[in-house]
Amino acid sequence: MSKKNELLIQERITKAIYVIRGQKVMIDSELAEMYEVETKVLNQAVKRNISRFPEDFMFQLSIEEWENLRSQFATTSWGGRRTPPYMFTEQGVAMLSSVLNSQIAIQVNISIMRVFVNMRQWASNYEELVKKIDEINLTQGEHNEHIRNIYQIIEDLVQPSFTERKPIGFKRA
């Protein structure tokens, strides 16, 4: 696979990852499309192997969640579903390769795992950046106080106080 194709696939996968219930997940219909199977075939394979998919690997959206997700799209490519879709976490997607035993499923899963790894690395780098910015802001506050003290000392040296000096010169009587 060419580098350009790999980037296009990774971009498509990245766009298919949603955050629902605080987890990064992928919807069954988009996964089925990527695996080149019908959504009902994917869901049947999962149901035949349901013990491999605990709740932290896969869950079904509530009707409200499904309506909310659909409302985010001007046009939906998911058609007229009768039931809310299943959402697969990273671990659930990895488990799919064991129940959909095809070369396409294996290749797609490899690409998806790479995207999830890249997202974790990006998030880790982002967290480190936020920590460094916070550290700079804290130390900058200390530096600002030191700089203010230095400016005050310089100002005192340049503009000495004349209030305590006695006037110079003669007084008229």
Q: In terms of topology, how is this protein built?
A:
Layout (H helix, E strand, L loop, with lengths): L2 H13 L1 E4 L2 E5 H8 L3 H10 L9 E3 L2 H9 L14 E4 H10 L3 H56 L15
Antiparallel strand pairs: 1-2, 2-4, 3-4
Helix pairs in contact: 1-6, 2-3, 5-6
Describe this structure in a few short sentences.
This protein is of the alpha+beta class. It has helices at residues 3-15, 28-35, 39-48, 63-71, 90-99, 103-158; strands spanning 17-20, 23-27, 58-60, 86-89. The protein has one domain (3-128): Roll (Mlu1-box Binding Protein, DNA-binding Domain), CATH 3.10.260.
What are its keywords?
single chain; Mlu1-box Binding Protein, DNA-binding Domain; 173 residues; 4 strands; 6 helices; alpha+beta; 4-stranded antiparallel β-sheet; 9% strand
Rounded Rg: 32 Å
What is the CATH architecture assignment? Answer: Roll
Order of helices and strands: HEEHHEHEHH
| Percent of residues in β-strands | 5-15%
Q: Strands of the biggest beta sheet: in what spatial order?
A: 1-2-4-3
End-to-end separation in angstroms reads 106 Å
Q: In percent, how helical is the residue content?
A: 55-70%
What global shape is seen?
elongated
- Low-confidence segments, given as residue ranges, are none
What count of domains describes the coordinates? 1
| Tally of contiguous helical segments | 6
What's the pLDDT, averaged over the residues? 78
**How many strands in all?**
4
> What fold name goes in the CATH topology slot?
Mlu1-box Binding Protein, DNA-binding Domain
